[in-house]
Amino acid sequence: MIFVMSLCLLGLVVGLIAVASNPSPYFGALSLVVVAGFGCGVLIWHGGSFLSLVLFLIYLGGMLVVFAYSAALAAEPYPETLGSGPVLVSMLMYFGVVVSTFVLFLGGALEYSWVVVDEVDWNTMFRGDMAGVALMYSYGGGVLMVGAWVLLLTLFVVLELTRGMSRGGLRAV
User: Fold this and answer.
1) Per-residue pLDDT tens for 62-80?
2) Does residue 144 share a domain with residue 72?
3) Which residue of 39, 60, 88, 110 is 20 to 30 Å from 15, comparing CA positions?
4) How many degrees, rounded to 5, is the angle at CA 72 between CA 71 and CA 77?
5) Nearest C-alpha neighbor of 45 from the set 134, 166, 128, 133
């Protein structure tokens, strides 16, 4: 059980490092799909099957359309791959930061973070993801505003990732 969760978390971190190293839009989009898949795996492992399904469907349905549009605007003749020099150096630098942060904060907090949401004592009558959906709808105003802000920020991140060396999607048409 811990091996599968550790594998999902390692894939999530490596995918986030690949996105942060800012390769070409094509590899950035592929890295974001991998990150979404591993993130949904982590959510499923902790008992959030409904939230994981919604996240993955919304991500694949909405954000990949934005990526396809932005990648069409910023088509590069020679895209940077994940193994090229500058991208590999930034990936190793980010990985070093992640490892050093992990070693710095390695303490007793990790032994309590592996509890699945269905094993918490207040949640014995129904599944944890359904309680989360009910809370999201009952206190939905703040969550809606945070979600809208995150989607707007994600749009600008996508446009910046696909910009490349040219003006890209943020140019004046």
Assistant:
1) 777 767 776 776 666 777 7
2) no
3) 110
4) 80
5) 128
pLDDT 10s digits, 109-164: 555 555 555 555 555 566 656 666 666 667 777 777 888 898 888 888 877 776 65
| Within-domain flag for 173 | no
Same domain for 146 and 83: no
Question: Whole domain around residue 27: which residue ranges?
Answer: 1-123
Residues 111 and 135 grouped into a single domain: no
